[in-house]
Each structure stands twice: as C-alpha cells, then as structure tokens.
Amino acid sequence: MTKTVVILGGSLAGLHTAHALLKKRVRDLKIILVSKSTHFYWNLASVRAIIPGQIKDEDIFQPLQTALSRYPAESWELVIGSATAADFDSKTVEIQLSDKSTRTLPYDQLVLATGARCASSDMPWKAVGNYDEAINCLHEIAAKAVTAQHIVVAGAGSTGIEVAGELGYEYGKTKEIVLLCSGDKVLGGHNVAAAAASELGKLNVTIKYGVRVQETKTNQGKTDVVLSNGETLRTDLYLPTTGLIPNTEYIPAKYLSADPNCRSVLVDEYLRVQDTQNVWACGDVVSKPRAGFFITQKQAASVAKNVEAVLAGMQPTIAKGPPVDIFACAVGRERGVGRMNGWIKMPSVMVWAAKGRTLAVPMVKGYIDGSVA
After folding, report:
1. Which top-level group of life is the source organism from (predicted)?
2. How confident is the model at residue 183 (pLDDT cuts 50, 70, 90)?
3. pTM summary value
4. Per-residue pLDDT tens over the stretch 324-364
5. How far is Cα 351 from Cα 330, in angstroms, rounded to an integer?
C-alpha cells in the first residue's frame, strides 16, 4: 500500500527533504511537495540581486518541476498552493491552490518546512509570494536603487549588514547610504561587530546607533523614516531588514511556542513536532537553535532520515546540528566577517571565499539536480 509523505514548503528545507527521500527510491512511497511558488528561490543572494546586472534571475530562480522530474513520475507530485489548515489528528492538510480553490491532502507522514517571511512583507530577503511576485519585487528595488540618491537600511543584523555592504560597494561613492542600528554595536554586539562596522565605513556607509524606526510615511515619492530619537530621515529608498515571522499560521496553536513575536514549531530531539507521531519540522519554522542555512541543511537531512526510518518500522535518531557553528557575513563583494563556534574569528578572505564571492549561488545546482541530499 502506497505511503504518502506531504512536504509543505519548496524552499531550502522542503526541497532538500524531498530529494533525500526520493533518491532512496523506496517502493510504494509518494512525495507530495507543496509550494506557493513554481520556482525554488536562492534567497541568500537577494542582497546582491538588488544591484542591477550582478545576478541573473535564472541564477537564483529555478523551476521545482525541473528538480523533481528526474524521479519516476508516480513517486512525486508538485502542488502549487499554500497550507491554510492542518489537522494532525485526522492526518490532513488544507491547501489553497493558486486558482483559489481548496484541496485536502491526506498523509501518512507530514513535514513542515514552510520557512519564514520578512516582517516587512514586501522585502525579498525571504520568499515573496509566487514566482512573478518575487521577481517583480527584486526588479522594483533594483530600479529604485539606481535612481536613489539617499538610501536607508533599517536593521544591523546579518541581513542589514549584507544589504548595506552591497549598496556601499556599488554606490558608496555616489549616494548616501545610512544603516540604522538599534543598539550600540552592529550584529548584536558579537565579537565581529567592530570588524563589520569598520568594513562598512570603508564602503562609505554611515551607521546611526541607538535608534529604531517608529514609523514610515510616504511623502511626495520619498519615504519619511521617523526614528525613536525624534529625528526624521527623508529617503529615496527605504529597505527594512528587521524581523522574521515563521509561516505557521496554519498550524494549531498548541504545537507552537508561546512567544507572540515568533510562533515557531515546538519539536523534540528528533525534530518531530511535540505530541505527534508522524509530523516533523525543519528550517525557519523551527528556528532552533537559531535560523541559519547550515542548520537548515542538517535538519532537513535528519528529518528525511527519520521519516524513512519510521516508515520502515524503526525508531528515529536524535537530530544533530552542524559539526561547526559558523556565522559568515559578506560585506560587499570583496570583504566579510565571520566566526566559528561563537568566538573564533574568521579572516576576511576566508569569508569572502566561502560566501562573499558568489553568495553560494553555485549551490543552486545541487538543489536542482538533487546532489544536495
């Protein structure tokens, strides 16, 4: 009898999990991958994709159909839509399809990999809607960046640093670029904060410390950014990078954390959703120990392994994280800052070689041909 594994989410975690299960060629197993977009999106390169001419659309967007079509047709199905409700007792999920109709998917095993979205929903640092909406978002920001003379980037975490760095590298000598930092140091004050601030300074990026954005107002084609210190910055382009919201609204509340600002999925040491037997979660919906690319990769591999084990009547194994905890932040196209295991600083050239040079765009191929899993 055919067993069905439904995977919600066609991004890093979901597609990785799908490849890992499909490559096993397990008999009588069908994978249903649900994605709101027809395309896989390499959002890690979004910070550079807003600079015209740097990254081609096809370098960071690839059809999910292409990724799955290498497997026998009867072993998979791609459903374009978004989960609107899940019933873990009846083992069903409700999907709103791209034509706004609804489809109920029964499952034997369910994988939650719906990721997270930016608090400012119109920013491309995470997936934005469907394929056309994501492409248009990047193109619109790129077009505005060309003509803008004043740009404000809000948020001095890793995304904000990378966005400001890319803009500074390209436009630092001709435009005014301001990075807003709520604390007295960027990157939350980690031991590479001073290095990151120094690199941004070399790119002519101005950092304003100790301020938060209170509100923004549109004013004659510009944006007035009202700060917590009472100051108002009038800018041609405002790019917020603060806040990630897990895409978990379709999941019953009892399976989510109590934090109203981050309703992530509660999982056990196997990455199985707490108080369930056949529901698993990985990636940004978990955000444990934190959101991160390497963590997501390891979680997806662990979930696939455990789903396969449970279907075979065996016990799951405890999920393990990356052997080395790496934080790498590109600062423009030639420099970067990073650390290993929380405190060991990485040389700038190492961060450039590992991330900043290409923003790992060559890895897209592995997600399409399946070699990632």
Report:
1. Eukaryota
2. very high
3. 0.95
4. 888 999 999 999 999 998 789 999 999 999 999 999 999 99
5. 7
Sorted by where each begins, the domain ranges of the chain are: 3-120+244-321, 131-243
Q: How far is CA 317 from CA 4, 16, 31, 109, in A?
A: 21, 18, 21, 16
Q: What does the H/E/C string look like for the chain? A: CCEEEEEECCCHHHHHHHHHHHCCCCCCEEEEEEECCCEEECHHHHHHHCCCCCCCHHHHEEEHHHHHCCCCHHHEEEEEEEEEEEECCCCEEEEEECCCCEEEEECCEEEECCCEEECCCCCCCCCCCCHHHHHHHHHHHHHHHHHCCEEEEECCCHHHHHHHHHHHHHHCCCCEEEEEECCCCHHHHCCCHHHHHHHHHHCCEEEEECCCEEEEEEECCEEEEEECCCCEEEECEEEECCCEEECCCCCCHHHECCCCCCCCECECCCCEECCCCCEEECHHHCCCCCCCHHHHHHHHHHHHHHHHHHHCCCCCCCCCCCCCCEEEEEECCCEEEEEECCCEEECHHHHHHHHHCCCCHHHHHHHHHCCCC
**Encoded tokens for 58:** 């096809």
Close Cβ partners of 198 (under 8 Å, ≥ 6 residues apart)? none
CA atoms within 13 A on the CB side of 240: 18
The pLDDT value recorded for residue 217 is: 95
Tell me which of 3.40.50.10540, 3.50.50.60, 3.40.50.150, 2.40.128.190 is the CATH number of domain 131-243: 3.50.50.60
Q: Which residues contact 292 (CB under 8 A, 6 or more apart)?
A: 327
From residue 8, give the alpha-carbon distance in Å to each of 81, 206, 219, 285. Answer: 10, 41, 40, 11
